[in-house]
# Entry
Amino acid sequence: MGDRQDVGVRGRGAQTREAAQRVALRLFTEQGYEATSLRQIADELGINKASLYYYFDGKEAIVQSLLEQRGDEAEELLAWVREQPRSPQLLADAVLRWVDSFTAEKLQGIRFLAANPLLMAGLTAGDEPRVGTGLSRLAEDLSELLPERTPETVALLRMALLSINAAVQAAASTDLPDDAVIAAARRAARAVTGDILSSS
# Structure
């Protein structure tokens, strides 16, 4: 009985943490990072500020947690790739898995970080964030599957992995909905990986 209660409490804790990330990111995007307070985030969540401190000790910790989350996802994809039979098709499958992992909230995160480069630099202390490191390692692993490994095909592979970032930037001054941005990124990624694989 106690174990089930612990699991329930942990589950609620994870839900509260994720809700705090979502609310914070929305407020940061709508009214600016500096203009958003922890109290506002807590009020939106319907909890007190002390309860929010249980999960995050400040706004930077919330942003850092979002970066860590994407870093985890990049590393999980890399682990998945390393468990699969090696083939050129794995390259295309892995790229599309990465693009398809994006949601409207994750696109909001890309936009927020792009709009706050100084915050990003402060959080990473000049080092590449874990998500960047994970994607670099993924690109290196996948480049071994290229039918013809040249500087150009390696660059194209990296472009395919970053197609979601390019789609967000391209749609910045439009009213394109997030699902269409993700669809555009997917088409671009498919086109680039298809070109790489067919040019051998």
The chain has two domains: 1-57, 59-198. Residues 2-31 form the longest helix (30 residues). Residues 1-10 have pLDDT under 50 and may be disordered.
